[in-house]
Amino acid sequence: MIELKTYNRKQLQEFIASGDFRKYDFLPITGHRAQSHIKNPKASDEQTLLILAFCEGKLAGYVGCFPDNFIIDGKEFSYAWLSTLYVSSEFRKKRIPKKLLKKVFEEYDDRISITEFTKEAEALYTIMGVFEDVFPKYGKRYYFRTDAATMIPEKKPETKVLTPLFKLTDTITNSLIALKNGPLKKPKFKFEILDHIDTESSDFISKFESRRKADEINVFIKNPWVLEGKKEEKYLFSSYADTFKYFWVKVYDDKNILTACSLLLLRDGYLKIPYLFSESGSDRFIDFLIYFIVKNKVKALTSYHKQLNEKLNLSKTFPKIYQRDFKREYLFHKQLLNDLPEGFDPHYQDGDGDCMMT
Fold it and tell me: pTM for the whole thing?
C-alpha cells in the first residue's frame, strides 16, 4: 500500500529540525533547500511544499513544490512549480510517480507548471496528458574555453581513462585562448558588484515589469539551493558545487546615473543571467560582461535574453569560440491555462520559476 505524506511550511521546518529527513536510504530534501522553500515569500503557511511517498513504511519517492503567483488585475493568482520528482528504482513498477503528481494536482487545484526537466521526466508528463508546452524561450549558449576533461567523459564514460590527456589539451588550448583575448582590461566606466540587491537597485528595477521584486530575489540569494562543498551523495538533485556564487551588478553612465542592473550566477565555470534590467546601459553591461567572463575564466554562458543575445552576436569583442541554440520549455497544466486570462503571457526572465536556484 502506498501512503502519501504532505509537509507545509511549519511541518517541513519541524521535519528538518528533527533530523528525520536523514534517516532514509536517500534524502527527500536537503536542509538548506528546505529553508529556501520555507522562506519563499510567495508560499503561504497552508501550501504543501514537499510530498513523500511510502511503500510498506519505506520511503519510495518524493516531489517538491515551489509556490509562485501572478498579479492579474490587482489580484493574486497562485500556482506552483514542480521543483523535484524522484522515485527509487525499487518501487518504479508501483505507479508512484503518477500518484505523487495527482496529489500535487489535488493540493494546488491543478495549477502546476514545470521547466528545466529531464527527458525521462518529460516522458512521464507527456503520458499524463494534462500538460501543454507553452511560452517557450529561445536562447544561446556561448562557449569561451574548452572543457574536454569534463564534457567528453560525461557523454562517453569509457573515455574516462583519457581524462589526463583531455586536461592537458584543455590547458594548452585555453592558454592560447587567453593570449588571444589579450591583457585583461577593466572597464573605465563606473560599475559595482554586490552580494545582494541594495536600495538604489531596488528603486531602479521597480520601474520594470518583473515577476520578482528585489526583496524576493534577495531571499533566494541568502537561501540558495546549492552550497559550495562536496556533493551530498544521498540527494539526487542539485545540492553542492565547487563554485556557486551570485553577483549583483550595477552599471552607471558618465553622469553617475544607474542604467543597468543584473543578477549573475556562476556555477563551476558556467554562467547564467537570471535577471537583467536595463534602460540605456546594455552596451556598457556587455563590456562589463566581457570583463567578467575573462576575469573569472568562464567556460560558457547560457542566456535566453533575446535583446542581449542579439547584441552579443553583433559584438566584435565578445570572446566566444562557439555557440549553440537552446530552447527552454515550460509545461503548464491545462487547467492552469484555462484559469489564466485569454492571451496571457508571463514574460518570464531567465531566473523565474526555480531556474535562478541552480
Answer: 0.93
